[in-house]
Amino acid sequence: MRRNRNLSKSDFRKVFADNVSSADKDMVVLAQRNQFYYSRLGLAISKKYASRAVDRNRLKRVIRESVRLNQPLLSSLDIIVINRKGLVKRSNKEIFMALDRHWQKLNQKFN
């Protein structure tokens, strides 16, 4: 949904300035509590590590779907996902599994 997107520059700045992070070799996930009952997602998918538009769009689609499926676990969070070099080479299933690990880790840190 549109309301679940982190679009403004100030939202990104707030999360980058004060966050809880979870990282692996393929991605970094930053999160911060928000005042809403739902989570908001921001994506920083770099052309440097995903040069083709089709790859960037696939990554964004998979990440958005993972957030949608884990909405109860991620309520009231502003989340930013940043790709690293190897993420584009991973299958959708591998990305889903990695994101599930990140969501569990963030849930433990916030609860």
Give the SSE map.
Layout lengths: L8 H9 L2 E4 L3 E7 L6 E5 L8 H17 L7 E7 L8 H19 L1
Parallel strand pairs: 3-4
Antiparallel strand pairs: 1-2, 2-4
Helix pairs in contact: 2-3
CATH topology: Ribosomal Protein S5, domain 2
The number of distinct β-strands equals 4
* Number of contiguous helices: 3
**Radius of gyration over alpha carbons?**
13 Å
Query: What's the end-to-end separation, in Å?
Result: 25 Å
Spatial sequence of strands, sheet with the most strands? 1-2-4-3
pLDDT below 50 for ≥5 consecutive residues: which ranges? none
What's the CATH class, please? Alpha Beta
Question: What percent of residues are in strands?
Answer: 15-25%
Which structural category do the helix and sheet elements fall into? alpha+beta
Major beta-sheet overview: 4 strands, mixed
Quick check: average pLDDT? 90
| Count of folded domains | 1
How would you sum up the global shape? globular
Helical content, roughly?
40-55%
What is the annotated CATH architecture? 2-Layer Sandwich
Order of helices and strands: HEEEHEH
Characterize this entry briefly:
The protein is α+β, with helices and mostly antiparallel strands. Helices cover 41% and strands 21% of the residues.
Structure description:
There is one protein chain. The protein has three helices and four strands. It has a four-stranded mixed β-sheet, with helices on both faces. α2 crosses α3. It is α+β, with helices and mostly antiparallel strands. The mean pLDDT is 90. It has one domain (2-110): Ribosomal Protein S5, domain 2. The chain is globular. The protein has helices at residues 9-17, 53-69, 92-110, and strands at 20-23, 27-33, 40-44, 77-83.
